[in-house]
Design a protein that fits this description.
alpha+beta; seven-stranded antiparallel β-sheet; four-stranded antiparallel β-sheet; 11 strands; 2 domains; single chain; 9 helices; Jelly Rolls
């Protein structure tokens, strides 16, 4: 039975297990290696369907809501689709059981009750991972994925470390090692970090993943940043909550962006990780220039549509 979320009572009842084995699991693997974990998000009312319908309505009332939804068949080696012109976000959610819909409610922590929940999650995960997530990571994001029966989420990668907690339904998650050059080459990583989101190649021979996990309510899987993955839903509606963290300092990203342009002029750059000092220099110079230009371009596009 789902319980209402109240920050004061949440502090008394942990969302994640805090036994010694859980502590070892989280601390040893966080931001490095996939692992499965237990949680209690499936018992919280704010993640149940009635609350999600109300949340979708609130998202629609925002002038620039960032939530995404699409419909139709998807394939593992394809990419994400566009919003249907004849369907609203709320309609897509209302029809989730009989359609082929996929909904992402983005940045829901901007709503007060979800912000309060996220703060509890950050505190608990900081303790479990033995990492000060508020200091070493920035812009923590709470996202909800709602998926129609039997739908696939195509192969892709994300730039954030991700705790994916299953709330309703069951799904299979297939993950791949970002540090394996057969899975993800240096050139592919450079292209991804310069905006080419389709850069990672699909591998037919590894369709079952290098790691695979079955998650159901009360279970989740941790996906390290940039580890490619795809997801297969079962024959029920799925609801998953994603808790994402971005590293406050990530020299690899700046090095990849620098290397992309160095390679374009015919040179062979040093790959990230071989020289931390060089990675740091690349990030502090060209990497920061790239960030500033991208932020300016995004702001202009948002404000003026250019």
């Amino acid at each position: 039975m789902a319980t209402a979320f109240h920050p004061a009572s949440a502090a008394e009842s942990a969302v994640f297990p805090h036994d010694s084995e859980a502590g070892k699991l989280f601390a040893a693997n966080f931001d490095h290696h996939p692992f499965q974990f237990r949680h209690g998000l499936d018992t919280m009312e704010i993640f149940q369907m009635p609350a999600l319908l109300k949340l979708a309505e609130r998202c629609m009332r925002k002038r620039e809501h960032k939530s995404h939804y699409e419909t139709g068949e998807s394939v593992v080696n394809g990419y994400f689709g566009n919003k249907p012109a004849d369907m609203t976000l709320v309609q897509a959610l209302e029809r989730i059981g009989e359609s082929k819909n996929w909904i992402i409610l983005k940045r829901i922590h901007e709503e007060p009750e979800y912000r309060a929940a996220l703060e509890i999650f950050i505190s608990e995960l900081s303790e479990l991972t033995a990492t000060d997530l508020r200091r070493r990571y920035h812009d923590p994001i709470l996202t909800i994925f709602i998926t129609s029966p039997n739908r696939i989420t195509p192969y892709h990668l994300d730039g954030e470390a991700n705790f994916l907690a299953q709330v309703q339904g069951r799904k299979s998650v297939f993950l791949y090692n970002a540090h394996d050059p057969h899975i993800l080459t240096a050139e592919e990583m450079e292209r991804y970090w310069t905006g080419h989101l389709l850069a990672p190649r699909w591998h037919d021979e590894l369709s079952g993943g290098q790691w695979s996990y079955e998650i159901s309510p009360g279970l989740g899987v941790f996906n390290p940043a940039t580890f490619p993955h795809w997801v297969k839903n079962t024959d029920k509606v799925s609801v998953s909550v994603s808790i994402n963290f971005k590293r406050a300092r990530n020299d690899t990203v700046g090095a990849c962006r620098t290397n992309y342009y160095v390679r374009k002029i015919g040179l062979q750059p040093t790959e990230p990780g071989r020289s931390p000092a060089l990675d740091r220099l690349k990030n502090l110079t060209f990497g920061k220039l790239y960030e500033g230009a991208h932020a300016t371009r995004t702001a202009l596009r948002s404000r003026f549509g250019v």
